[in-house]
Amino acid sequence: FNSSLNRRILTLVDGRDPAIAFLGSQEWAALSFPIDEMASVELVRGPGSALYGANAFSGVLNMTTKQPRLSPGGRLMLSGGDLSTKRADIRHAGGFGTDFYYRATAGYQQSDDFTRSRNVSVEYTVPCTATLAVNCLPREAVALPLTEDNIRFGGLRLDKHFANTSVFTVEGGYSTVEGPTFQTGIGRVQVTDVERPWARVNFNTTHWNLGAYRDARIAERQVALASGSGANPAATAPGTTGLWEDSSNLHAELQTNWGIFQDKARVVGGVAWHRQEVDTSDPAGFHTLMDSAKNETQKSAFGQLEFNATNNLKLVGAARWDDSTLHDPEFSPRGGAVLTFAQNHSIRYSYSQAFQRPNYSELFLRVTAGAPVNLAAPAAANPATAPLAPALTAFGFNSMRVLARGNNDLEVEKVKSHELGYSGIFAGKVFVTVDLYKSNLRNFVTDLLPGVNQGAYPTY
Question: In angstroms, how far is the first alpha carbon of the chain from the final one?
Fold first, then answer.
């Protein structure tokens, strides 16, 4: 149920989703601040689309960075270690005027990588041969272009505090990544030159929060190691220049919260708008990962009510409506109850629904997946098509591209989950929890792995 590109836990950094638009996965090396700048990291488990929308399928990882006002001063950290790792992080925060505070960060890291080339031999498991094609690791077409990782980043944040506790924030960052390797459905892909600029603005008051951000990824000449696409830096012909991606996320959201019934209940509501664009064409206009540029516009409305029915019973209900140009509208409800039946002892029940949109790779992929195949080859090389060899040669089928294709008929993945739990404290020293989960998944999407289910998907 997982892969290296798993996106079933939505990740947010100060409300911003830094995922790669094409794959939907996180690119942790592209975070443009030291990890020490985190003020809190919270994992909200279980389906969370009722408030967070698409891709909050199994939970939400919500990370918040430190406010400049609460972390003044400077810091320089130098570190080194295995894999010839060298890293430097610097940050400084302070204030000026009466209510303005800033934070500046920068960093650089260089290291070797655990990844090894597989074009001559494989470093573990059983290598594939002419007679062994299952439970083996195939050799790749090309060696790793880069044998070390280089990461550079910088960021700047400015906060304006008002007398009524409101805060206005303007923030931006930029990072470059060279060297990391992703395991994808078409084999390993090495990132050779990626730029990740981003910016966000946010205005927060006691009852309102208005925020917007733009996150982009500019990737040139990523190398598909299995097929060799992009391995030659001097290549200029269409289809040989590597895997390109120019993508962006533009997001705006308005939230409000109020206490009602003498603060026995709390209401949260909001609306959101999201625009995603993905273009995989190289400078010659050849689309290296899809057959054309794609985009999505999404509009959402959500709300939640928390109600203290009695001193011992708390109820919560939430729902969200998402309307997208890539899939049918989705309604995501959530409800729960917590009953405290004795001091320090409670039971809870919750029901949640969530959905996950297939990513652009799963929907629209069109990329070279291996060396060209000669369908007009002699019988010894290709017995399945040998009888048609003369006709195939006449029509130019003696060199056919092998493509990995997406499926634009895929429906969104859906999950319905029940949770029943107990928590209690005994003698003020022992904390006990018991949890029972039952989930039902539909329209599950995963990569089609070579050598798996040979009966349904034979290898030719």
Answer: 27
